[in-house]
Amino acid sequence: MIDLLSLYRTMVRIRAFEDAAEAASQGGVSWGGAATGGGEVRVKGPLHLSTGQEAVAAGVCSHLRPTDLLTSTHRGHGHTLAKGADTTRMMCELFGRAPGTNGGKGGSMHIADFSVGMLGANGVVAAGLPIAVGAAQGLKIRKLDAIAVCFFGDGAINRGPFMEALNWAGVYQLPVLFVCEDNRISATTDSSAMTAGPGASARAAAMGIAAMQVDGTDVQAVSDAAAQLIADIRAGHGPRLLHALTDRHKGHVSVDPATYRKPEDVAAALARDGIARARARLVEQGQGAQAEQIERAAKAEIDAAVATASAAPAPDPSAAYTDVQTIGAGMWA
Fold it and tell me: Which of 172, 163, 243, 174 minimizes the C-alpha distance to 207?
């Protein structure tokens, strides 16, 4: 069993990162895409926050090794951090600065860090699923002792790549864990209005893939479930699916007022906050002082990351031509 303090540390660091990124994005884009004025905008464009969903990233990634591979969604900061990426380089990437994990050219929705096995966030719903399956097939072909993990939202189960990915993984018994972060909102729509049947777990079971449903706001429950499923995968028993019921505290993007949500639903989600639940448990165990120390350390770490990213240089214009494969004619005219 993973120590609760360790899980809490990851959750708090994710929350601190998301809060700082949200503050830095204000004025960069308004709901609907129009640019807005105001003060200095350090994160430009849409920013999809995982605030409220930290327990899923922390619980799952606590069982991953550096050699394991991971794909994410447009809401991928928490996954990236939990997989071991450096917070300063991540913040630089969101700020579009040269020291970023992707040289400042990927930004929030395309953040990746191959050095820790994070293959990338993805702005296309469900697109990370087949990438993870391809990565898992590569691991199996090369007989490597590693697995792939794919995070996706509940809206993704209604897209073709979900079925195709699970089918392929099941047919070839690939070492991949599918993790559905079910916050019950597909962008701005109640997922139940557009999803037939009971959801991700049932669809996985119908394809012969063992699945577990868990309270995604209980980090220990997520960690325990992930431990069992990941152990099965490492033992060669094929793919597994974890269906985590969680909550998205914010709107679809950082400046979305989320007026489509009922106030009582938002209040209920905030009352279930995974970080608050974990902290209360730590206090009950006599570890309140350690929790406070973790919170202070997380704030200091993220404040330093913001300061570094704010002062970091933008990519040189010549960087536009790096990481680009050209065919035939060579460099662009």
Answer: 163
